[in-house]
Amino acid sequence: xxxxxxxxxxxxxxxxxxxxxxxxxxxxxxxxxxxxxxxxxxxxxxxxxxxxxxxxxxxxxxxxxxxxxxxxxxxxxxxxxxxxxxxxxxxxxxxxxxxxxxxxxxxxxxxxxxxxxxxxxxxxxxxxxxxxxxxxxxxxxxxxxxxxxxxxxxxxxxxxxxxxxxxxxxxxxxxxxxxxxxxxxxxxxxxxxxxxxxxxxxxxxxxxxxxxxxxxxxxxxxxxxxxxxxxxxxxxxxxxxxxxxxxxxxxx
Length: 252
What we know:
Blueprint: H1 10-30, H2 34-46, H3 51-63, H4 68-80, H5 89-101, H6 105-115, H7 128-140, H8 144-156, E1 158-159, E2 178-180, H9 184-196, H10 200-212, H11 220-250
């Protein structure tokens, strides 16, 4: 598709970009290809910066063509108000749920977080069992954030009523009615999976849990191993940020 274009010449770059948009429109509107419709949405979003049109394409591709990634996109647009007047978490939730049903793990994550009450400004009625199921589905698909969040739920527990709940003093929670009871073994299991999926915070938790013997048999050698993994992930993250910063300077 790019053959014959000299990308060092501004006019040819512009021509290529316009032709790309034409190809995506044809593939979406004429050939009805969901993957191409999603690419058209990405094109309108990142190249044309027309978020309103991009949102319409994502919405149609989600509802009409059952494309999970587009459900995630229009869910995010609806959540934060991108291309719209105001954000609406309640209206965003069905898009995330549909995206999850269509096999998109990040949609499962977002649906789970909303239902679990993870966002302080999101006015969605809490439903911990439903939220848990979405998070579990996302974790099963190797989403590190979902696994880490589940680990946290088991680490301190999820009370039915937060009024008399103190996550920092477990001994004061003996009479608390839990929806999810604290379970160090389950907390460790999900933290380990999150770490294996590359979550730096989970790796740090796994190291500490091995060091203290929380939810797993105490093992100083494994504690040191996961501490090393944590540091390696931290260095990799800092290097990535540095590279992106330098690229930004070069592009100015």
